[in-house]
Amino acid sequence: MTDLIRLDRDGPVGILRFIQPKKRNPYSIAFVEELVAYLRDAERDDAIRAVVMTGGEHFSSGGDLVGFQAEIAKGARATSEMVDKVHDGGRAAYLFRKPLISAVCGVAYGAGLSLALSADIVVAAEDARLCEVFARVGGCPDTGSSWLLQQRAGAGVARMLVLTGREIDGRTAKDLRVVEECVPAKQVEERAFEIACEIAPHPMFGVQTAKRVMRASAECRYLEALDIERDTQSVLLCAHDFPEAMKAFSEKRKPEFKDR
Fold first, then answer.
1. According to CATH, what is the number of the domain 204-250?
2. Do domains 5-199 and 204-250 have the same CATH topology?
3. Which residues, including other chains, have CB under 8 Å from residue 239's CB and lie 6 or more apart?
4. Which of 99, 137, 186, 208 is 20 to 30 Å from the Cα of 41, by its Cα?
5. Which residues form a coiled coil (predicted)?
């Protein structure tokens, strides 16, 4: 590991900190490798029940265009392999099994915005600067933004932001449903942490299953979603936490969950 990312722990919440804010946390291959490794560590750590992802003063300025030039110069095959490596970061964040919350201050451009949107919940500063910058530099969306943005804001808004390359602030992002919450910059990390703490006490098997169901059903038709819900809920109904919740309800007491 280098000095690009750090994983802190505050009770049941892991805080994944990008620690190059003066450079605006560029999305380099080295950054991706550390991101993947730390997400893997957080997933294995049973004491961590939710993770906040933050870049401090700036979330991420996006792809390390200077660093990418050497690979691009090698031709199409090397470039394709490089882009796939870059995608590993968003892939790891999107597939992270535990709840993941992005705390976005400053800039979130290109791949940096894609990374923020790969989380389950995004809290943005009112004056954060979000931009699908790809069209400005002669590129097209990558790192999952073409799909993620349409999932959150709808096709029309996504096309407008991608084709114009328009920068929007946190307030506008909230209005357009690109992010879930918008607060003053000094409160962003605190608010993301509060949401993580709100989730953390819940039985983890149920939370992880609910997250998987929500992701899967968003990518299929209604009747397929019903099948997904049936199959996963049937497992949970027979697990140890749901029966305990039902028993506690009937006995008018607080449930004693094992999966904590």
1. 1.10.12
2. no
3. 205, 206, 259
4. 186
5. none
